[in-house]
Amino acid sequence: MTEIDKYELKKIQGGGLSIWGAISIVAGVIFAIGVIDGFVRPLKCN
């Protein structure tokens, strides 16, 4: 097994989740809940 130096270590890109990815997932879930709620429990506009 070879040991890599700091320069090579910094070049490695991981598969981490960015903050915008997390916000997008949360927004998608909230939107889907709203759509399902609209079909299941329709409310009239006043």
State the end-to-end distance.
70 Å
Instruction: Name the shape in a single word.
Output: rod-shaped
Distinct helical segment count = 2
Which consecutive residue ranges, at least 5 long each, have pLDDT under 50?
A: none
Query: Main beta sheet, described?
Result: none
- Strand residue content: under 5%
Rg over CA atoms: 22 Å
Number of strands: 0
SSE pattern: HH
Which structural class best describes the helix and strand composition?
A: mainly alpha
Quaternary state reads single chain
Report the helical percentage: 55-70%
Mean pLDDT comes to: 88
What does this molecule look like?
It is a single chain. With 46 residues, the protein is mostly helical. It is built from two helices and no strands. The chain is rod-shaped and about 70 Å long. It starts with 5 loop residues before the first helix and ends in a 6-residue tail after the last helix.
